[in-house]
Design a protein that fits this description.
With 345 residues, this protein is an alpha/beta fold. Helices cover 38% and strands 18% of the residues.
Length: 345
């Protein structure tokens, strides 16, 4: 995207699988006096339709004769900017932002199931006809793109850059065709990308997402504390996003290490504004172990309720298949938790 906007070209050629192509980008190029020529696969009607929706100036099939392609490029280059269609980039104002519920999901260590809970919680809300955005804000190991078999670009970095430049962030989201109310914003490709976004853009991203969504579910990873070093601050961004959530779901697992670290994380986040909810994931059939762990979490955190999610073999199977967890105990338990928290009301 940055190269397309920076290169002094009269005509920009894109195809129907260009990952960063959006209607917003086409409008910016046209506003600069450029023309945009789209190449589509003749056997893929959807790709052609998507190019048309972005507002490109002209279309040619990918098997076009090279001479005809050159003629089309020359013709577009000769057109004057006033002859080209332009599309104003609409930026939502605070008055148009509809209040949405922001839910952060975090956990103390890898393996407790933060990503799985975030994915199923977002899918549950979307299944209840709640337009939902699922955002990967894990600073250490973002995995939503791989987990849901999505492209890694555009992503959260793209959205934050758009927010910093006063452009809407919705074009950075990936729709999941099987669940139309659910759209996904993959995480940063590199941890260094977190250091390249201006402060405050996270709030702008959330505000923009609230324009067209009633719920935003954020995978916050482990909410790593800020670490100061000679090269600047590292981590702490997800913890800042946690402070902007309405609800924080803390995911624990029934192991001594996970429980102790969950208590530490709870203590670190307890002073934040969001409502904290403790969830015990991967609960087996041993009721004694379940009851003891739940009692320990309630005692150490002061949480009135500890929600439990059953261990379900459908969860790792869904991860390998790159889709939502199939019907089973885990899915029922997440739905019950969402209802208890009032998220699907």
């Amino acid at each position: 995207r940055e190269d397309a906007l920076a290169e002094p070209a009269a005509v920009v050629l894109v195809d129907d699988v260009t990952s960063f192509l959006t209607a917003d980008l086409v409008a910016e190029l046209q506003a600069q006096g450029r023309a945009v020529l789209g190449l589509y696969d003749p056997g893929d009607s959807q790709g052609k339709s998507e190019l048309i929706d972005t507002g490109v100036d002209a279309l040619v099939p990918s098997d076009v004769d090279p001479t005809d392609l050159v003629r089309q490029v020359v013709a577009l280059a000769a057109r004057q900017p006033q002859d080209r269609p332009s599309r104003p980039v609409a930026r939502p104002t605070p008055a148009t932002v509809r209040r949405c519920r922001v839910v952060g999901v975090t956990g103390p260590t890898g393996g407790v199931g933060v990503t799985e809970v975030a994915v199923e919680l977002a899918a549950t809300l979307a299944g209840a006809d709640v337009p939902t955005a699922l955002v990967d804000a894990d600073e250490l190991a973002p995995s939503l793109a791989q987990r849901l078999a999505l492209p890694v670009h555009p992503n959260l970095h793209t959205a934050m850059r758009a927010a910093a430049q006063g452009r809407p962030v919705a074009d950075s989201l990936h729709p999941l065709a099987s669940r139309r109310p659910l759209r996904v914003l993959p995480g940063m490709v590199s941890g260094e990308d977190w250091q390249t976004v201006p402060p405050g853009t996270d709030a702008t991203v959330l505000a923009d997402l609230g324009v067209v969504h009633r719920a935003v579910v954020m995978d916050l990873g482990h909410c790593l504390p800020r670490v100061e070093g000679p090269t600047g601050n590292r981590y702490g961004q997800a913890e800042g996003l946690a402070g902007r959530a309405d609800d924080l779901v803390l995911v624990a697992a029934p192991t001594p290490t996970a429980v102790s670290r969950t208590v530490e994380l709870y203590a670190r986040l307890a002073g934040r504004r969001p409502r904290l909810h403790v969830v015990l994931n991967k609960v087996g059939t041993d009721r004694f172990v379940r009851d003891e762990v739940v009692a320990e979490l309630r005692r150490a955190t002061g949480a009135g309720t500890v929600h439990t999610l059953a261990h379900d073999s459908a969860v790792p199977r869904a991860a390998w298949q790159g889709g939502r967890t199939g019907r089973g105990r885990f899915r029922r338990d997440v739905a019950a938790m969402a209802a208890t928290l009032g998220l699907t009301a």
